[in-house]
UniProtKB/TrEMBL annotation:
PANTHER family: HTH-TYPE TRANSCRIPTIONAL REGULATOR RUTR, TRANSCRIPTIONAL REGULATORY PROTEIN. This is AcrR family transcriptional regulator. Residues 1-21 are annotated as: Disordered. It comes from Brachybacterium fresconis. SUPFAM superfamilies: Homeodomain-like, Tetracyclin repressor-like, C-terminal domain. Residues 1-17 have a biased composition (Polar residues).
Amino acid sequence: MTNANAQSMDAPPSTSTERGRAARARLLEAAAELIAEHGWNAVTTRRLADHAGIRSGLVHYHFESVQALLRQAAMSRVSRLLEEAGAQLSEQRDPTEELLSLLDHFDGADATSLLVVETYLAATRDPVLNEQLVAELARFRSALESALARAGNPAPGATALVTLAALDGIALQKGLDPELPTDDALALLRGIIHPDRDGGHA
């Protein structure tokens, strides 16, 4: 039975339900990759189908619209990213270095950074996406605020907002200019996060 189960796990989807789930998963993966590669507005039904390796008619069979597909694909990636980062923050007494090290992983030109930028822009025109993104960002800011409060920051809410805005901006600038020096900017952020330490800013 063990061998049979192992074989069934490796076998291609055999039922219509399994095939449908597999097609949806391929479309979501393709959508996330295409958003980062070509930009939100350049993702078409044909491009999605070709990238996912399925018939174009299945795009609208599984999703009510291309926009709905893009929205779900983007928010799935963004939500996972923020959840993982939030979990890391919750484990740290002092979140400073964990937070600032995000710039080592996301330089503004990587696929995740590009997906996030495209999602931010699309959310200014899509009320449903805007509501979803705002809720996810609020949860992450709340996690950061709690971490900053544990670390002794005197204004954790405002500091969380300023820090995240600064990190977004630095990542965007690095995407435009990979050689941009950031050490002084990160030192300034450390001073904002810990104004009571030597070299901090009041």
